[in-house]
Amino acid sequence: MRAALDKLKLNAIYDRVAHHYDFQHAFFTAGSDQRGRGLLVAAAVNAGDKVLDCGAGTGSTALLAAKKVGQSGKVVLFDMSAGMLAVAKARAAKERLEERLRFETGDMLNLPFEDDSFDVVLSTYSLCPVYDPAKAARELYRVTRPGGRIGIAHSCQPARPWVRWLADRVENVVWRFPALSLGCRAVSVSPLLEQLGCVTTFKKRIGIPLWPFVVFVMEKPRP
Predict the structure, then answer these.
(1) Residue 161 counted as domain residue
(2) Are 213 and 155 in contact (CB under 8 A)?
(3) What residues pair up with 203 in beta bridges, in sequence order?
(4) d(CA 156, CA 170)
(5) Residue 1 falls within a domain, yes or no?
């Protein structure tokens, strides 16, 4: 796995690209990023849920979740980048969903929430750039209530060896330009969550061959 970008540098990059992030990410993923968000919300979120969108960015996943939880639900958008959340706030206001949303900034490796706080915890493409994905996944697990759902979408390795070889060489070039790579790299956290007792209820690989994603939902075990 590639080494993560420095946290302060990463935050500055996301602040800088906030206003064109959605276009950029959709362009490089051929629109599969939003498809992954839709699959995740459909599989993990129910009406009335209290949801944490961790690494919420510009709110693309959170707005989908807010529409599904309805007026009795709540969605907390948490991200390190104030610039990204500013875009999310503007989008929420445009769609008149502010009353269902709350916005907080911070480090997803040290979430400022109590244990077992949320019915659903989502992370769409936010584990890919963090310097310790395993610790972040443990935090997602910690704040999910027993019986609750953890929904994750992240980059993964291409299935075929020759495609992995090609993807690695393309990434060698892209990683010279952090504003393009956004620090994203393939990660793997589902084995850790399985070790913690989570059970997979939904899983699907999507995306273009060079940069695939895995989208999955796991249920946190009850005592």
Answers:
(1) yes
(2) yes
(3) 216
(4) 15
(5) no
Per-residue pLDDT reduced to its tens digit, 66-90? 999 999 999 999 999 999 999 999 9
Question: Running DSSP on this structure, what letter comes out for residue 57?
Answer: T
**pLDDT tens per residue across span 131-176:** 999 999 999 999 999 999 999 999 999 989 999 999 899 988 988 9
Q: What is the CATH number of the domain that holds 188?
A: 3.40.50.150
Identify the CA nearest to 196 among candidates 150, 128, 129. 150
- In angstroms, how far apart are the furthest CA atoms of the chain? 49
As a whole number of angstroms, the distance between CA 26 and CA 211 comes to: 12
What residue numbers bound the domain in which 53 lies?
Answer: 7-219
Residue 135 makes CB contacts below 8 A (sequence gap 6+) with 109
Question: 192-211: buried (b, 16+ CB within 10 Å) or exposed (e) per residue?
Answer: ebeeeebeeebeeeebeeeb
Residue 140 lies in a domain: yes
Burial class (CB in 10 A: 0-12, 13-18, 19+), 12: middle
Q: Is 2 part of a structural domain of the chain?
A: no
- Which residues share a beta bridge with 27? none
Identify the three-state secondary structure at position 54: strand
Report the number of distinct structural domains present in the chain: 1
